[in-house]
Every structure is written in structure tokens, then in C-alpha cells.
Write a structure and sequence with these properties.
Organism: Candidatus Amesbacteria bacterium GW2011_GWC1_47_15
Pfam family, one: FemAB
Largest sheet: 7 strands, mixed
Strand content: 25-35%
Number of domains: 2
Oligomer: single chain
CATH architecture of the largest domain: 3-Layer(aba) Sandwich
Number of strands: 13
Helix content: 25-40%
Family: Belongs to the FemABX family.
Structural class: alpha+beta
Order of helices and strands: HEEEHEHEEHHEHHEEEHHEHEE
Protein name: Methicillin resistance protein
CATH topology of the largest domain: Aminopeptidase
Keywords: Acyltransferase, Cell shape, Cell wall biogenesis/degradation, Peptidoglycan synthesis, Transferase
Radius of gyration: 20 Å
Amino acid sequence: METSKNFEVREDLRQSEEYGKYIERIGWKAIKIQDPGEANASRSRFRFQIFIRKLGPVSIAKIQRVDLPLPWEKLDQVLKKYRIFMCKLEPNKDKGLPIQELRSKGFKQDSWPMLGTKTIRLSISPNIDSIISGFKKDARYCVRNAQNSVINIQLNDFEGFYEMWRKANKIKGLWTPPKKDFYSLIESWREKCFCVLINNLAGCVILVHKKTAFYYYSGSLPDGKRANLPYLVIWEAIKEAKKRRALVWDFEGIYDPRWPNNSWKGFSHFKKSFGGEEVEYCGSFTRWRLPF
């Protein structure tokens, strides 16, 4: 029997060492904050990361998927030191959020979250048969149907994935990160990331952190969609994630009517076809301050 604990994420990928390395390689600065009074801070695991981007004489900052409360005094010191005029905070959990405390620290809820405010998680700790039986009927059919047309399933063909993804995004009018930024991600995560590519028509990139597989990048060309390959991509990636001892699968965002983005409805329907549990975040908060 599945319980909410089967879907818990121990720590979001944005608070990992690997993500800190990645974001520094694409032009941000990652500041690691220890808890107040932490003995031998140089050796201790950091409490959370602040990502800072310099804009001339001032900077902006973002703090993503952290547990509250934060060590506010240390945070204030960092904001002052780096002349932060805007700090974006996207807390980790929705339950018991100390809204009044956030307001007292100058953070006000805004309407422009940078991360998905709602996601779907699957428990992938059961056996393979149990996992696929949790998919909705249409998803199970599409997996079987796609298996009939498969020619080539490739693991870790990152170059092939990027070229397919770039073409797919161009068709849909979506932005694709520069190739150097894409490889900065792959090189920062090293063996903790993998990619599945099928027939050079559909694929995904997965980041694995603390037993959770995050569905980070994905794409498919029209011929791949017609052959239901995106469904098989998910299935093959879940099996690979299990081999890497992941226990939870996180789809990294679905449509949320609280902060509606109609362009998310299509892929949200696709993600919901795999079952799982919906998880809501509390959105984002911004603190504006004079940097001098």
C-alpha cells in the first residue's frame, strides 16, 4: 500500500552540490549557507544555497526549494554583502508555511514563479509490474504500441538528444539553452544524470539526487509523437532510474490553476497519465531592497 512517504523527496535537486556547480558554470554564483552555530562549518553539509547573478554594480538572488524557517540573519548578511536588490524565494513545502514570518522578513507573495508550483511524483520502489499497473489504461496501451515500432533505444547519447530537442523546440517555438550550457549541466552531474533517446525522435534527460529521479529535459519530434514514443521514453527512463536505486520519480512541474499557464496543459495531461500523486508548492515570494 502506497503512503505519502513513498512520494517524499529528501532534497530538491536545486540544493545539491551538483546543481551549485552547474549554475556557477552558466554565470551565477552559488553561496552555501551553514546553520548558525554549526561547528567546523568548512566541513559541514551546507544548510541551503543562494544563487546570485551580478548585474553591473548590483545583483539579484534566488533561493529555491528550501525548508523554512531560514537563518534570516545570515541571509541578510549575504544580501547586503552582494548588493542584492531583488531576492526570489520559492519554499519547498506548502504545509505549515509561516506566511507571517515571511512577511515580517520583507518577502511578499508574487505572481511569477520561476519553478513549477505543482508536480506529480511516482513511487518507483515497487517492482516493474506494479509500477506499470499504476499507469492509466491509455498510457499502458501507448507503451505497448510504441514498443512495436522501436528500432533503437540509446542510453546517454547526449549529443543526439540535444539535436533532437533543439529541432523539437524550434517546431514549437520554444527556446533551447545553448549547447555549452546543456553540457555544463551534464558535466556537473556526471554519473548522476542519464538520458534516454529512442529512434532519434523522442527522449529525456534525468537528474538523480538522493534517491529521486527528476525529469529535467524532454522533447519529441512529430513522428515520435505519432508513434507514442514519449510514453516509452518515460518507461525506459523509469527502469533505468530503478537500476540507479532511485525510489521516487518527480515530473518537475504540471499545470497549476493558481498560477495558470495554458501552454502547460498539454504536457500536464501526458504526465498525469502515469498516475502518481500530485504535490503542490506554495508559489514564490519576492523581497525588494535598496542595494546601497
